[in-house]
Amino acid sequence: MTLLEQFQLWLGGIWPGWAAYLVPAIVGIVVILAFILVMIIVFIYFFRRVLGRFQIRIGPNRLGPEGIFQPIATAVKILLKEDIVPAKGDKVIHWLAPLVVFVPVLMIFAVVPLGARAILTDLNVGILYVVAISSVSAIGIYMAGWASNNKYSLISALRTVAQIVSYELPVVLAILGVVLMAGSLSMTKIVESQSIPFILLQPLGFLIFFLGTMAEMNWSPFDLLEADSEIVAGYHIEYSGMKFAMFYLGEFGHAFVYSCIIATLFLSGWQGPLLPPVIWLLIKVVAVFFVMVWIRATLPRLRVDQLMAFAWKCLLPMAVINLFIVAAEMLWLSEITPWLLVAVNFVFAGVLVLLWSKLFNLGGGRVEV
Amino acid sequence: MKFERYGIGVVKGMALTFKHLFRPPITVQYPEQKLNVSRRIRGNELVWFQDKCTGCATCAKSCPQGNIVIVTHVGSENNYVVDKFEIDTGRCMFCGLCVEACPFDALAMGRSYERAQHRRRQLILSKEELQLSDVRQPSGYARPKIEATLPKQSLLIYWDRKEGGQKLSWLALTKKRGRGV
Predict the structure, then answer these.
(1) Is the peptide bond between A113 and the residue preceding it cis, with omega within 30 degrees of 0?
(2) Which of A204, A298, A358 to mutate to test the interface with B (most CBs of B within 10 A)?
(3) In total, how many domains does chain A have?
(4) Which among A232, B87, B128, B154 is least surrounded, fewest beta carbons within 10 Å?
(5) Helical pair A136-147 and A151-182, crossing angle rounded to 10 deg
(6) Does A367 fall in a domain?
């Protein structure tokens, strides 16, 4: 029973039924929304400072102690900007697109467990819900690209759809490996089943899931839809003011939510000694996000054909093989000690990554279409 | 076994950027920290030495803009006494021709570069404002004697001469700085 349900039950004894149902729901939603928005602001600050250090800069440090108020100043600046809509754009869709991008990010958070019982709704198909909702933002980006009446925006929108559809497959297959081991689709059950974090039991699955989610949230080096050097700013060229801020928040919200999901699926979520569960989750989330910033600071952007080839020729076959390996292990080797599985799976992961990188360097490292 | 084309490049790159985390930042925090400008900078101002000036108006003649206004009268020792010496730095392009033209080294370019004003008329500098003060120091432009007294320019990155000119070094702004690249 989650904390919210307990609250509902307790309130049901005092208040009429409909109020006891509505009030805890609203309280839970408000708390979660506030948590997400604060965390997004923290992430933006963290991102700018850490990226600065990666580039031997300092990053924003003027406003407030160590620049912690810089995201707020940025938000105020963006709010005050003029909202420009293209004259020949589709005005309704242009208005709707930022919401369609941003709202799914908030919706995913309904099933992320912050503690043993601190979860908004403990869906029994939690991870399926995540997969379903997270692909909605692709539609939002497509809407933005279409409604802007701008060729670069449209190119960006088409790229996004191709990219997200391609990377959805390996991500879902990697999730299936986790689900096989956990024996449940519910996020709380997945966390509870991780006495050993699944990153150790399925290193290959973690790698595939990590790269796939990075591509799905259009994080550099997969940020083809924003490729500044090719298509200026992609789908948000024609956006300014608060609408642009929604895209910006959506990007970092995606980063936060996917970090949460990676931490939940592979890094044993809120589990950990001594510290309270939320702190453990946040530590893991920040660690995952740090690796994302690290990758963003290092790797150059892929070409379009390289991106597609990476999804279909590299991640997808590896994800299928990973799924088979995990299934076989669960079927025949479920009795043996898990640490043996850890060793076996690390060997498998290493061999497969080496094999696939060999396949990829045909033609002197050039990837054929 | 060589790992040349097995994705080792990605790992190498990641290791390199990770090293960057532990390097001191190269940023100069401008209003608090300032670099030494070039010793021969033509900063956004001029310095006028009243005792050296004979009022010959060579500077005014050499000025391509005609910015320098100089009014004199004949003094008791049959010399020029400067009544008015004005430079409109709003129209000045800091070419330095007046400084080069001065036969008595009475005019020099300044070293400062923070001369922004709120009003255009504040940019017209009078005789009193142009004189040497704490904030108005002369640069070594066309004045080798002044140049010899000034500190050397500090660069963010420079060739380390001790290492045979082969190594790039950073400026040591703080104690943490100055480690080799």
Answers:
(1) no
(2) A298
(3) 2
(4) B128
(5) 180
(6) no
SS3 assignment for chain B: CCCCCCCHHHHHHHHHHHHHCCCCCCCCCCCCCCCCCCCCCCCCCEEECCCCCCCCCHHHHHCCCCCEEEEEEECCCCCEEEEEEEEECCCCCCCCHHHHHCCCCCEEEECCCCCCCCCHHHHEECCCCCCCCCCCCECCCCCHHHHHHCCCCCCCEEEEHHHCCCEEEECCCCCCCCCEC
Which of A77, A101, A123 is a domain's end point? A77
Q: How many residues are present in chain B? A: 181
Beta bridge partners of B170: B157
- Rounded (5°) CA angle A70-A76-A81: 130
User: Which residues belong to CATH 3.30.70.3270 in chain B?
Assistant: 46-149
Asked if the Cβ–Cβ distance from A353 to B21 is below 8 Å, we say: no
Contact list in B for residue A53 (CB cut-off 8 A) is 20-21, 25
Cα first-last separation, chain B: 31
pTM recorded for the entire structure: 0.80
pLDDT along chain A (369 residues), means of 10: 75 76 82 86 88 86 83 86 83 87 86 80 84 86 86 87 88 88 83 81 88 85 79 82 85 88 85 81 89 89 81 86 86 77 82 77 50
Q: What architecture does CATH give domain B46-149?
A: 2-Layer Sandwich (3.30)
Query: Which residue type, as a one-letter code, is found at position A279?
Result: I
Query: Between residues 54 and 93 of chain A, which touch chain B (CB distance below 8 Å)?
Result: 54-58
Domain boundary among A61, A77, A93: A77
A131 shares its domain with A253: yes
CB burial string B133-148: b at 16+ within 10 A, e below: eeebbbbbbbbeebee
A353 in reach of chain B (CB within 8 A)? yes
**pLDDT tens per residue, range A204-256:** 888 899 988 888 888 888 887 777 777 888 788 888 888 888 888 888 888 88
CA distance A278 to A134: 23
Q: Do A56 and B13 touch (CB under 8 A)?
A: no
